[in-house]
Amino acid sequence: MHAFAPLVLFFSRHFGVTFACGEVNWCRSFFSSMGTVQEQGMIFSLDRALTVTGVAVTDVGHKRERNEDAVISLSQKGVFCVADGMGGAHGGKEASQTIISTISDRVERDFSPEAIAREVLGAIHEANRRIFVRAVERRVAGMGSTVVAVVIPPGRRHACVLHAGDSRAYLMRRKKLQRLTVDHSMATEMGLGDNEVVPKFIEGMVTRAVGLGESLDVDSRELKIKSGDVLLLCSDGLNKHLSDAEIADHLAAFPQDTVQAIANRLIIETKKRGAVDNVSVIVVGIQRGRLNGG
Fold this sequence. Notes:
The protein is α+β, with helices and mostly antiparallel strands. Helix content is about 30%, strand content about 25%.
């Protein structure tokens, strides 16, 4: 990442100004809109005993004029993703939707379970190039998007998480919450946690995002999945209002409550607290036997 990238990202998020900057490891995922949008993921079976279902909900919040978040929940393919656009005017919305449409187009084809992850990764590379080229052609700086995705190949008992930016992935297992991602932000670089005061001049400043350069580094990790696990993907609009402990309280309701109910409550609670940003969540539940429709 170029030495001036943090400054570029800061101006792009806060003032809609535009520049350019950014390579990838391996993994994958997406969808979007104004107001509250819900996408019910279809249930698929990992084997005869384990099923997965995902639900995506995105909301414009109370302060923004448009929703620049984008989400997709493709449970049949095992692909789930949240993207949080940036870039002023319609740049952020276009960036996040470019990621989604590029990945969606690829994963809708027939691939082996192993190939889905490779295809999503390739799509993220492609989306990165598309966004970067558009920004250069239009002379728009800072047009880009965060991305956080989970891929659970059908028939497999492992998941791949990848991300760039400050959107997050969490795993709830046996009532214990684990954050699976580390924010690519100036606050993190300075060692500041969620409960600490972040100086205004670095607030919302990310150090990595899709589309800000010809190449992009994407963090990835693999983990085994088990019955009873709940995965959460979210944009930073959720974390601005709910602590990890509060998020854990909501996720702990699974499987007594459906993933749909949990996702809805996370959005409702965020809006009760002001929803200063767009907010998006995807809740993915894993359980033995057939889930009760999400």
